[in-house]
Amino acid sequence: MMQNKYPQKPGIDFILKQAFFYWNKTLVFQLMFSIVFFGILLTAVMLFGEKYGIFSYNKELQEAFMQGTQVYLKKMEAITATENYQMFTLAIWGTTAFLYPLNLGMFQIFRKLDLKENIVIGDLFAGYNGLNFFKYVGYFLFWFFIYRFTLPTVVLAVIWVAVTLFVAPLMFFTNKRIFESISLNFKALKMYFVEIMVCVIVAFLFKYLGFALFLIGGLFTFPFWNAMIYSLYKTVFSEKS
């Protein structure tokens, strides 16, 4: 049940400190998450890029770029309309969906940290156990389908991210269904709007800051998003009451 006692409402600083605590305590697993994620994703890009001849478009795009922005954009539009490019895009989306359950593994690790239980490598793959895999891949495909249509507006995409922020942990920890989780998430967003939006912005910036400042550091900062979601989830929801 959601905590709704306003006087006890923790501040943004508490949520951020808690998120950094979870992240800092599990750095080895953060690194493993990134290595598995990017290892599989880059392998898929190389394999499917080769299969669908995507890399052969690079020369055409370079030549178009030399002729000006308009020519480049027109060439890009023509390439993205090809069947090969669309098949490549679908393959990469499929790979991303396959990798999504890794995020649930991080939630399991944070929960074990809270319970002072021994964390093992297998915990990182908790989202792949039994029916979990189909459940979370199915949810991601549903989420991504809507996200992709809201992305051009930016604002709607941000709203969609905020409205679905707690869906995965609610499904994972309380076994709620997708639409019930979205409904609870929406109530939480109304009650904790400022806290959630500030934390989302901080998490987004920190997630990619590692790549911007020092490339290898990104492998540690990339999964930080999960620590922030878990910290917010723990603050907003109380499963005992």
TrEMBL record:
<feature type="transmembrane region" description="Helical">
    <location>
        <begin position="186"/>
        <end position="206"/>
    </location>
</feature>
<keyword id="KW-0812">Transmembrane</keyword>
<keyword id="KW-1133">Transmembrane helix</keyword>
<keyword id="KW-0472">Membrane</keyword>
<protein>
    <recommendedName>
        <fullName>Beta-carotene 15,15'-monooxygenase</fullName>
    </recommendedName>
</protein>
<feature type="transmembrane region" description="Helical">
    <location>
        <begin position="212"/>
        <end position="233"/>
    </location>
</feature>
<feature type="transmembrane region" description="Helical">
    <location>
        <begin position="153"/>
        <end position="174"/>
    </location>
</feature>
<feature type="transmembrane region" description="Helical">
    <location>
        <begin position="85"/>
        <end position="104"/>
    </location>
</feature>
<feature type="transmembrane region" description="Helical">
    <location>
        <begin position="125"/>
        <end position="147"/>
    </location>
</feature>
<feature type="transmembrane region" description="Helical">
    <location>
        <begin position="27"/>
        <end position="49"/>
    </location>
</feature>
